[in-house]
């Protein structure tokens, strides 16, 4: 069905449906592992390369002020092992900070 059909126009203008869809949205953060596959990885890689190319062109073009911020990588799914490694790294960091800066 084309996007300009009465059905899609009615859906686009339905305030109750918009509120319902807004409530159903997943919280922001990394995507879930079960919804991530090779297609999503490829799309993310293409988007990142495009953003990096755009950034490189803007940075190397003389006369563009202010310089743009460097693009950040898109979020990827995080497995339990990666979360455990991050927590372990954070504990090590906190331990070192407490050794160097006691009382902080």
Please provide a brief summary of the model.
The chain has four helices and no strands. The mean pLDDT is 89. It is mainly α and 104 residues long.
Topology:
Elements: H1 6-12, H2 15-24, H3 38-60, H4 80-100
Shape, please?
extended
**Uncertain spans:** none
Structural class: mainly alpha
Rg over C-alpha atoms, rounded to the nearest angstrom: 22 Å
Provide the helix percentage: 55-70%
Number of strands: 0
**What is the strand content?**
under 5%
Order of helices and strands: HHHH
Describe this structure in words.
This protein is mostly helical. It is built from 4 helices and no strands. It has helices spanning 6-12, 15-24, 38-60, 80-100.
Can you give keywords for this protein?
mainly alpha; single chain; 104 residues
